[in-house]
Design brief:
The complex is a heterodimer of chains A (491) and B (330).
Chain A lengths: L3 H45 L6 H17 L6 H12 L4 H7 L6 H14 L4 H4 L7 H19 L20 H18 L4 H18 L5 H23 L2 H4 L4 H16 L27 H13 L148 H10 L5 H13 L7
Chain B lengths: L2 H21 L4 H13 L3 E4 L6 H12 L3 E5 L6 H5 E7 L6 E7 L6 E5 L6 H13 L1 E4 L2 E4 L5 E6 L12 H4 L4 E4 L5 H11 L13 H13 L4 H13 L9 H6 E3 L3 H17 L7 H12 L4 E2 L1 H6 L3 H15 L3
Parallel strand pairs in B: 1-8, 1-9, 2-5, 5-8
Antiparallel strand pairs in B: 3-4, 6-7, 10-11
Helix pairs in contact in B: 1-2, 1-3, 2-11, 8-11, 9-11, 9-14, 11-12, 12-14
The chains are: A mainly alpha (491), B alpha/beta (330).
Chain lengths: 491, 330
Amino acid sequence: MIPEAVLEALERVGRRHRRISRLALAVQSLIAGWGAAAAAYVLYALAWGRPPVWIAPAAFAAGALVSFFRALRPPMDPLGVARLIDARLDLKDRLATALEWGGRRSPLVYWLMEDAAQHARFVKPEAVVPWPGLSRVQRLGLAAAAVLSVLAWAGPLPDGLLVRPAPPAADAVDPEYEELLDQVIALREAIAAIPTPEMRRLDRDLSQLQAGLRDRSFPQDEALALLRHFERRVQAALAGLSGIDSAADPLDLEQLQELAKRLELVALVREEASPGDAGSVPPLAGRAASPDELPQGLLDALLRSSGDARPQPGAMPEGAGGADPAGDAAEGGAFAVADVPEDGAALPSPGAVEGPAGPASQDSGGERDGAQVSLPGGPGEPGGSSGTGGGPSPAGDRGSGGQDGTFEAGQGVRIVDHVTGQLGDGPLHIGRVNTALPAPSQAAEVPRLSGPLASGAGGFSEHGVGRENVPLVYRDAVRNYFRSLEPGEEP
Amino acid sequence: MDETQLVEAQGKLDRLRRELGKVIVGQAQLIEETLIALLCGGHVLLEGAPGLGKTRLVRAIGQGLDLKFTRIQFTPDLMPADILGTHVLLTDAEGRERRITFQPGPIFAHLVLADEINRATPKSQSALLEAMQEGTVTTAGKTYPLEQPFFVLATQNPIEMEGTYPLPEAQIDRFFFKLLVKPPSKDELKAILERTTGEYDPVLTPVLRRDELLALQRAVRQVPIASHVLDFVVHLVEATHPSSPRATEEVKRYVRYGASPRGAQALVLAAKGRALLEGRFNASLDDVVRVAAPALRHRLILSFEAEADGVEPDRLIASLVDQARKEVAV
């Protein structure tokens, strides 16, 4: 028989426990809802910008409900209340044991009931279930969270950190990127005609840079740095190729590009112009240059530098470095560099000079300025001018040719001056002319004074094949064809 | 036993505690745990360094309880018959009739002090097994019951290993408690010196009669215990087994075998005995917690790794008690 005092104590404490538990649950749910609303608002604002109106109430309701149902417990049974009293008031499990052993009859159980009833009379519900309090740390934490949430609510937040910027339209043009892209393309074109392994590697790297610029995957600053790096490599490679270090060093990129364009033009010429074809230049590989692309100072420097490094007469330079003058239909100035024997003896007959005659030779335009290259062939002679070895390919000027050269004794060739003049319509095609003219005493020993650019055909073919414009199955055939164009090769 | 008698017996236990305090300085916990074992009818293994008063404590208990007390000094040449007794040929006074009679050994007493029990051979140690567990002695095919209460207090020296025979686990498990006798504190040592080096010779008066002790032992078994306290005991004992899901990482690492059901029985009984000793009529969680170490420390068989790491059973038990307490918390 459980004493009434024990049951009454359990009832009082149980009632208070239920009441305070519900109150604590409500407060806890409100706090959780507030926290959820603040967090949802801030996170949404940070991620996607200012949230819609329903976000905060929805998050509040969700947080409050989740907290409520997670913390919801069934009411404590009497045994639980008895254990709670025993634990809080240090009753050594008297009430719980009395409640469990209430139906048994034993002297000790009887004494236990008496003992439990005596202790139960002094049980105060407030002492067992006090108002839920918070520790100092908890209070501070709660206050800080409340302040932060209010600040986050009212304060300015960066909008939409996770919102990705709209991708640029496909046809949108970024001027800076386009400019870089143009530079890369120009540089690639400049080095395309120089079939050296270094240039091929550069071209491959540039192609990757070009692709990166095209799809905007390269950051602009990195692309610019890479471009500058490649330009320096091109500069160094060109200097090494043509022995024009002294001339190339002070050149800037623009000049280098100019130079490279001319080198390409030179390399494109494969067809050897014969004296009989004077005045008619075979169509070349489609590369034409306007007179505006011919900076006289640059070419002069290059030609002089190249002339200084010219090999002995009779030796055909292998380098393709040189500049090619281009003629414009209206006033394209052609120039030539001639090597004139010291003693003013006539140069070999024009027929012996196999320099390609440009179209300018068909239309003797007016002479603009500068000295002309005077070849003994005189006007009307095709191929009346000759370029320096590996240097510029001059266009003969048939109508206005004159002799205004200086000669140095004992030297086979030397740069005299530019030849300018009116050229005919159409693009000016330039070939390479062997200008390694012999001294008069050696003239008979020199079989020819100029040669075609056929020696560059192999590199050109490799370059073309390397561009993969040629189907794989035809590449060998293309290589063989161009190899057959090399001097001394059988067609 | 009615309430008056019970309360009177509880008062006598308090008096016995005070009487023991005359002889034993300090060691209050040791005395309390010894009395709990006595109330529960269990045997006690006292372990401690020499000179800490183990034998003196047992002697004092014997004097204070007004019980028949014997002492067996265990030595390597001690034979079982020296403990249990033997059959001897006796002749009557006239010398006509001779008969073989059983001469009971020192084990036939209420309170047996088995001093330095680990110095005897296992054969002699095992002679105590039946007496301790069954309360009987069987010799020459005849079983002799031991008079109740039967209470064995064995002592052993943990530091002297030369020439000793460690008790087998089966015999250790039969001890209700294993009590550690700790060195006295500075003040206690000073009091010991004052009492034992002067003329003071305390004489203990018997406080508790045999029938009263038996009544108390019966009352202990009637002490109510709540179900959550039993749950606590179950959780605690279960957690001592390395294969149990309740076992902690420490238990899995350091314990080879956990406590037996006899250990759980000892826990509950000891909790009841402590409650009665404290003047309460129900066993509580606190009672179980207080008796957990003496009831379980000799029932945890530790691994070699535990010995290598210096892990004590008491530390493991303390952590298991905390864990079990959380499991049954309100």
